[in-house]
Each structure stands twice: as structure tokens, then as C-alpha cells.
Amino acid sequence: RACLEGALRILRNRIEQADAELVTDLPPQDLFLAADMVQLEQVLVNLVGNACDVLVNQPNRRIEVSARACGADVVLEVHDSGPGIPQQNLKKVFDPFFTTTENGLGLGLSISHTIAQRLGGSLTAGNAAVGGAVFTLTLAAWPESVAAGG
Asked: Does residue 47 register a pLDDT over 90?
């Protein structure tokens, strides 16, 4: 929770400039990850920041960030209400320097993917059935939080 709150503080102005509605769906208990907080915050900043970028000129501007325990893992999802990711780009979104935005460097998702792998987890991209893109970050939960039920 603290890591997400830190990322959202960093992005407060970008979220406001995008005029986006931010919705969080978090369990009542904190989820603990076996991960470096700074690196995790960087991934969240990249994912939510990209969601802000794709919402420009969209009629509905909504970003949903959710987290849940899933076995021995914690799954975090960032889902936006933008146009989604074209099928031909799904395999390229994590490639260094791949970008679809005018001012993008194409490094944020590549760095985030590398961080997820270094932390022993995964970062995947897809399109939600209801529309928009969804990025799913899966990382190992801190063992004590798994033993405590979440």
C-alpha cells in the first residue's frame, strides 16, 4: 500500500492533467512483497504514467489499480480505459525504444519488465475484455504475509 501511495504522489499532477479518474481496488490488509520498494515504485510510476498518456483525448479517462494475493504471489494490475494495445504491438511493448507516443522514449516498459524479472516475477501486457490495456505485475509475496493469509 505504501509503495502504491508513493507512486501516486509522484504522479498526482499527471493524473490531474489527464483529467483521469483513479480507482484503487486493494484488499483491507496490507500485502507484503519480497521486492525492493524503490524498484517496485518505479514500475508503478511507469505503468500508471503510461495509462495517463494514453487517456489524452479519450472520452472516458479511468485508471484502475488493483492488488490481490494469489497463492504465494501478489498480483498488481493497472487497467486503463484507453484504446488498448493493437495486436501487432503486444509482443513489442517491452522492447527497448518501442513507443507509440510522440514524446515517449520507449524505455519505461522495458525497464519495468527488466525490474519485474530481476525481482523474480513477471510483467505482462494485454487487452481487457471491456476495453483498454491491462498490465499485470506478478511478484512473490513476503513469506510471512502468505503464512498469515495474505
From this structure: yes
